[in-house]
Design brief:
- The complex is a heterodimer of chains A (541) and B (170).
- By secondary structure, chain A is an alpha/beta fold.
- Helix content of chain A is 38%, strand content 18%.
- Chain A has 22 helices and 20 strands.
- In chain A, helix 3 (49-63) packs across helix 17.
- The model of chain A has no long low-confidence stretch (mean pLDDT 97).
- Chain B has 170 residues and is an alpha+beta fold.
- In chain B, 27% of the residues lie in helices and 42% in strands.
- Chain B is built from 4 helices and 9 strands, in the order βαββαββαββαββ.
- Chain B has helices at residues 16-27, 55-67, 99-108, 129-139, and strands at residues 2-11, 30-38, 44-53, 71-77, 82-93, 112-116, 120-127, 144-149, 153-156.
- The longest helix of chain B is centred in the middle third of the chain and has 13 residues, at 55-67.
- The chains are: A alpha/beta (541), B alpha+beta (170).
- Chain A binds chain B through residues 117-118, 121-122, 125-126, 129, 146, 178-181, 302-304, 307-308, 311, and chain B through 10-11, 14-15, 18-19, 22-23, 26, 56, 59-60, 63-64, 66-73, 169.
Chain lengths: 541, 170
């Protein structure tokens, strides 16, 4: 079949089972956008390329199909960078197709030229600059294969405009075979045996559930493992929703912004098993201290994570699902000492359930608890970054895996709204709620137009304290309350923003209005913006 | 801190050298030398990397390099079972008066003079890094005008050859 390379790119995308591409057209990716008309692919126009990368990331989380984002060369491509870095840090598979100036112009500082493969090398799993049109099918197949296998991550395919226009003899390529890439390494049974022995010997074992469990689709197996061995568990931010928040053995999020119960257990355990977690500084702020006080075990699909941030006594490099399966037969009869589990579950009293008060503001922690009680099972939550994110992580009660979309490693403000749009487009039947802070919201507010245009009926909870809450808290506690550039000053009137975009609007001024506000938002058809007024003095924890 | 020799076989794709160098810079690894050249298979290059660091650092270097898609195989070469060489070119000030003295040093080190003029010679010298260091010390009094070193290339002795990669790759 003689088709253009641009058409071949889209054929390879369709073959992946992807039905939506997120992006922004321009001069150098015009051949691809032109060819879109001949496909069944739906093109969603975000209002900034960054939003396209975030939306494509959450599209994957909802469908399991690798998200695709597109941008033109130069500023289009560099606008993707934050979204690509976000996907890299949170191990989200993503294929970004960028237009590039024509081959003979590359290196001449042409209009809208940027060396995007050079720019994205440190934030991609791999990238390509395609100079030979015949290689397009093979490279696209490799891009999806690399992005989605092993530890997932973003791949950039940069295609000069003249290459896109060339005709090639197209046929679907064979399964990629890359000399230096073999992601499916089997789990070493001897290492699993060592882990089983460590679990058997431990008096105070604790499991740290990371995002890798969700990534491996191993939530069910993981929960069965926890229950069979009666082990207490904490999670990282990325691991939230791997275990139902209200589960008896689950102590909440660990680390800097974690619950008291989780950190209580973390500090007292004699065996800490990190599962699909990369021991980041936010979840384990003092790994040296930890490794002196407890035996460390680490299960991760990426061998480079093992011994990177914490020296470990037992390590399993491989897939979590396989590891849990192999662990099952090797831990028959093993049970966590009951007094330790008991001590951990009692520690949950250290984190009181938020209650309604008579303040002139709404307590966001109480609000989020109420929200999680009011929604149906099939609800997906996205957050921004900052106080809104930590309040949600600690107080919204998750019941199903993969229902929490948040920017963990990179901490990208402006992530939550486009991520929610991508999720709603991927799963229109689900209720998708974007939890926003008024700082983050203003970073991606133009995406409201993308939301409306795509018919993605989001429920938006906007916490308004007219300040950058988490930074303000930092300045208050560590910089002598010398508040600088945290006041949002001339903030917009959000009821009028909602009206401008033709979005229904409601407001919650205090705890007593929370329930009605939530009900009105959930009952209203179409998109809804619920403005929730929060005390600027409200703490993250 | 100790020196460690790593060998990486890489696919000859555009930008691979930048990817390796960028990885070292980004992860804060101290690189002593990096020498890359094609192997008997023109699609594959061999990179010899000398790293300064403790065992944990070298472990990370090896793992992070292995993660690069274009890197086919990485191994740490134990000095005791490795042969290594470096090439250097040294331009030394030299007149008719002291030429004989310099040539004597060149002979002792089994180096070669590959260019000569009325005021200087260029000496080609192959050996281990320490041999080149020693030679440099010996000719320094005559004034070194220019010096260039390739960095180390290394190979496991044939007895130790345990590269568990498919021979068909090469």
């Amino acid at each position: 079949m003689r088709i253009t390379a641009a058409e071949a790119i889209l054929k390879m995308i369709e073959k992946q089972g992807v039905s939506v591409v997120f992006g922004y057209p321009g001069a150098t990716n015009a051949p691809i956008y032109d060819a879109l008309h001949k496909t069944k692919l739906r093109a969603v126009l975000t209002r900034n390329e960054q939003g396209a990368a975030h939306a494509a990331s959450s599209y994957f989380k909802m469908t399991g199909n690798i998200g695709v984002c597109m941008a033109t060369s130069g500023p289009g491509a560099t606008n993707l960078v934050t979204g690509i870095a976000n996907a890299y840090m949170d191990s989200i598979p993503l294929v970004a197709v960028t237009g590039q100036v024509a081959c003979q112009m590359v290196g001449k500082d042409a209009f809208q030229e940027v060396d995007i493969t050079g720019v994205t090398t440190p934030i991609t799993k791999h990238n390509y600059l395609v100079k030979n049109a015949d290689e397009i099918p093979k490279i696209m197949a490799e891009a999806f294969y690399i992005a989605g296998t092993g530890r997932p991550g973003p791949v950039v395919v940069d295609v000069p405009m003249d290459v896109q226009l060339q005709k090639i003899n197209f046929r679907f390529p064979d399964r990629p075979n890359i000399l230096g890439y073999s992601p499916q390494k089997p789990v070493d049974p001897a290492q699993v045996q060592l882990l089983a022995s460590a679990l058997k010997e431990a008096k105070r074992p604790l499991i740290v559930a990371g995002g890798g469990i969700l990534c491996a689709g191993a939530s069910c197996e993981f929960l069965r493992f926890l229950e069979r061995l009666a082990l207490p568990a904490v999670s990282t931010l990325m691991g939230i929703s791997a275990v139902p928040s209200a589960h008896r053995q689950f102590l909440g999020m660990v680390g800097l912004h974690g619950t008291k119960a989780a950190n209580f257990a973390f500090d007292r355990a004699d065996l800490v098993v990190f599962m699909g977690a990369r021991v980041s500084d936010r979840s384990a702020s003092n790994p040296e201290w930890l490794s002196e006080h407890a035996k460390i075990a680490h299960v991760d699909i990426d061998p480079a994570e093992i011994n990177k941030n914490i020296p470990c006594d037992v390590s399993v490099a491989g897939d979590i699902k396989d590891t849990l399966f192999m662990l099952e037969e090797r831990t028959a009869g093993v049970c966590c000492p009951a007094d330790w589990l008991d001590m951990c579950t009692k520690a949950k009293a250290l984190d009181p359930v938020p209650k309604a008060g008579n303040s002139a503001y709404t307590n966001p922690k109480y609000f989020l608890k109420m929200l999680s009680e009011a929604v149906g099972e099939d609800t997906v939550i996205s957050t921004e970054v900052g106080q809104n994110q930590i309040w949600t992580a600690n107080h919204y009660r998750f019941t199903r895996p993969n229902t929490f979309l948040t920017s963990g490693g990179f901490g990208t403000m402006g992530y939550g709204l486009p991520a929610a749009i991508g999720a709603k487009i991927a799963r229109p039947e689900a209720t998708v709620i974007a939890i926003e802070g008024d700082g983050s919201f203003q970073m991606a507010m133009p995406e409201l137009a993308a939301m409306k245009q795509a018919g993605a009926d989001l429920k938006i909870v906007l916490f308004v304290n007219r300040t950058l809450g988490m930074v303000r808290e930092l300045q208050r506690d560590h910089y002598g309350a010398n508040y600088t550039s945290v006041d949002l000053g001339a903030y917009p009137k959000y009821d009028r923003i909602a009206a401008a975009y033709d979005i229904a609007y409601g407001a919650v001024r205090s705890d007593s209005e929370a329930e009605n506000g939530i009900m009105e938002m959930l009952k209203t058809d179409g998109p809804f913006l619920l403005e929730v007024f929060v005390d600027p003095e409200e703490n993250t924890l | 801190m100790a020196k460690h020799i790593l060998n990486a076989l890489v696919e000859n794709h555009a930008g691979i050298l930048a990817k390796i160098a960028g990885l070292f810079a980004r992860r804060g690894f101290n690189i002593d030398s990096l020498a890359v050249g094609v192997t008997q298979n023109p699609q594959i290059s061999s990179a010899t990397i000398v790293v300064d660091g403790d065992a944990q650092t070298v472990d990370q270097v090896e793992k992070q390099l292995s993660k690069l898609i274009d890197v086919i195989h990485v191994q740490t070469l134990a000095p005791s079972c490795t042969v290594s060489r470096e090439l250097s070119l040294i331009k030394v000030a030299c007149t008719a008066k002291n030429r004989a003295e310099i040539m004597q040093i060149v002979d002792i080190f089994r180096a070669n003079i590959i260019d000569i003029s009325d005021h200087a010679v260029i000496i080609e010298m192959t050996g281990t890094g320490s041999k080149i260091d020693a030679f440099e010390e010996m000719v320094r009094p005559y004034t070194i005008l220019e010096m260039s070193r390739t960095g180390m290339i290394a190979m496991l002795r044939s007895k130790e050859d345990s590269k568990n990669i498919d021979d068909s790759v090469l």
